[in-house]
C-alpha cells in the first residue's frame, strides 16, 4: 500500500472494539486502542465500572479521577448481561466488531452462553476475543479473581522492593495491572496481524499472574543461575553499582552508572581520583562487591551539590543521573509538556508512543454512564421502539 493510500485518523482507524472490561488492565488496553483510532464501545454492568466511585478526587462529571485515567476516547453503553435481552444486544454489536475484550472471572461468559470456543468462534469467525483475568481458567489457581497488590505479593515483586528496615513493600503504582493492559493489547494486535493473513480470529489471554512473573527481570534469571534468592536492596540494582539513590544538598538523585567509561567520567567530574585509582572500583563486579564502601565515597562527594545542576552536568557528560522528582515536579519538566493533555474539564496523560504517518491522539473525554446508548444501538439497527422495549425489560439499566 502506498503512503498516500494509508487511511488517516490513527493506525487503528476502522477497527471496532467491544469492551466489557472494568477497573484497570482491560480499560487501559482499550483506551490505548482508542487513542490510536479504534472505535471502542464500553459496555458496563448495571452497577457501572467500579473505578467511577474510587475517589476522591472526583472530576466535574462526578466520576473519580481514576476512571478518567483509563476510559477516554470511548462510547458508553450499559447492559444487563444476566438478561437474555441484554445478551441479544451484545450479539448484535458483535456482528460488526473486530475485537471483544472482557475481564470477568473465568467461566462467567460461559454461564451466559457467550463462551468463545463453544459459541462466539463459530458465529463470529473473524472475532479476536481477549480474556483478561487473574490466573486464567486452568491450573491450581484457575478461576480465582486477581488483584494487582495480591499478585505483587504472590509473585515475588514485593520481596525485591523496599528497604530492609521496612520489609517487602508494594510498588507504588498498580504495575501488574498496567503491564497486563499492555500485554493484552500486544496479543490483540498480533492476532489482528495474523487474521489479515488467515481471515480468522482467535482467543487471546492475558493474566495478571503470568505478567507479574514476567516482571522479575533480572531477579528470576539471577536466582535460576545462582540458586540464591534475591532480597531487598532498596533503590539499588542487584547486578550494577553504583546504580542507586543518593542524597544531594537539596534532595535525592538517582545515579544509573552502567559501565566503566561512565564511572570514570563521573569520578573525573567530582574529583574522585582516589576512587579511580582503587582497583576495587575498576570494574562493575568489584564495584558491586564493595558497593557499601563506594557508596560512602559518593555520598560525601555529593553532599555539597544541588541536584538539578549536578544532574544536568552529568547527563551532558553521558553519565545517567536524574533528580528524584515528585509527581507534580515530573509533569512540570518542560520535556513533559506534550504528555499533559485535555480540554474542557478533562485532564490526562498523553500517548507514550508516536507513529510518524498515523499518529494517535487522545480521544473524547471519558463517557458518562451509558452516555451513547441511543447512538450505538441505532447504528446496530435498533429502532426507537425496540430501544424502549429494552429499557422496559431492564436490559438497558438506568444510572446506578
Automatic annotation (TrEMBL):
Superkingdom of source: Bacteria
Keyword Transferase included in the entry's annotation: yes
SUPFAM superfamilies linked: CoA-transferase family III (CaiB/BaiF)
UniProt keywords, alphabetically: Transferase
Repeat recorded as keyword: no
Alphabetized InterPro entries for the sequence: CoA-transferase_III_domain, CoA-Trfase_fam_III, CoA-Trfase_III_dom3_sf, CoA-Trfase_III_dom_1_sf
Alphabetized PANTHER family for the sequence: SUCCINATE--HYDROXYMETHYLGLUTARATE COA-TRANSFERASE
Protein name, entry field: Carnitine dehydratase
Organism, scientific name: Bordetella genomosp. 1
Amino acid at each position: 500500500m502506498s503512503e498516500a493510500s494509508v487511511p488517516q485518523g490513527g493506525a487503528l482507524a476502522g477497527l471496532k472494539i467491544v469492551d466489557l472490561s472494568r477497573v484497570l488492565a482491560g480499560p487501559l488496553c482499550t483506551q490505548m486502542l482508542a487513542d490510536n483510532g479504534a472505535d471502542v464501545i464500553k459496555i458496563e454492568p448495571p452497577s457501572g465500572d467500579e473505578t467511577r466511585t474510587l475517589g476522591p478526587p472526583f472530576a466535574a462529571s462526578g466520576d473519580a479521577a481514576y476512571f478518567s485515567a483509563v476510559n477516554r476516547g470511548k462510547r458508553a453503553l450499559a447492559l444487563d448481561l444476566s438478561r437474555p435481552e441484554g445478551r441479544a444486544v451484545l450479539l448484535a454489536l458483535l456482528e460488526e466488531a473486530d475485537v471483544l475484550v472482557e475481564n470477568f472471572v473465568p467461566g462467567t461468559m460461559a454461564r451466559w452462553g457467550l463462551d468463545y470456543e463453544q459459541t462466539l468462534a463459530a458465529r463470529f469467525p473473524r472475532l479476536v476475543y481477549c480474556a483478561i483475568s487473574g490466573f486464567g481458567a486452568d491450573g491450581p489457581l484457575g478461576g480465582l479473581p486477581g488483584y494487582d497488590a495480591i499478585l505483587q505479593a504472590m509473585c515475588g515483586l514485593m520481596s525485591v522492593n523496599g528497604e530492609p528496615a521496612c520489609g517487602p513493600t508494594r510498588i507504588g503504582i498498580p504495575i501488574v495491572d498496567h503491564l497486563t493492559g499492555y500485554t493484552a493489547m500486544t496479543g490483540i494486535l498480533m492476532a489482528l496481524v495474523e487474521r489479515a493473513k488467515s481471515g480468522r480470529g482467535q482467543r487471546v489471554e492475558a493474566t495478571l499472574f503470568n505478567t507479574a512473573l514476567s516482571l522479575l527481570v533480572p531477579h528470576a534469571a539471577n536466582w535460576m543461575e545462582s540458586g540464591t534468592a534475591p532480597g531487598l536492596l532498596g533503590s539499588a540494582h542487584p547486578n550494577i553499582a553504583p546504580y542507586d539513590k543518593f542524597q544531594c544538598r537539596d534532595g535525592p538523585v538517582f545515579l544509573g552508572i552502567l559501565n566503566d567509561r561512565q564511572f570514570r567520567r563521573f569520578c573525573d567530574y567530582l574529583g574522585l581520583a582516589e576512587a579511580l585509582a582503587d582497583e576495587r572500583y575498576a570494574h562493575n563486579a568489584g564495584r558491586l562487591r564493595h558497593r557499601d564502601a563506594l557508596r560512602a565515597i559518593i555520598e560525601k562527594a555529593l553532599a555539597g551539590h544541588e541536584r538539578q545542576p549536578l544532574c544536568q552536568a552529568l547527563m551532558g557528560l553521558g553519565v545517567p543521573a536524574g533528580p528524584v522528582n515528585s509527581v507534580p515536579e515530573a509533569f512540570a519538566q518542560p520535556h513533559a509538556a506534550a504528555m499533559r493533555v485535555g480540554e474542557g474539564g478533562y485532564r490526562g496523560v498523553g500517548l507514550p508512543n508516536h507513529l510518524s504517518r498515523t499518529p494517535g491522539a487522545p480521544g473524547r473525554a471519558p463517557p458518562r454512564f451509558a452516555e451513547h446508548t441511543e447512538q450505538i444501538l441505532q447504528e446496530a439497527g435498533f429502532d426507537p421502539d425496540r430501544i424502549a422495549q429494552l429499557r422496559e425489560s431492564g436490559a438497558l439499566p438506568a444510572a446506578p
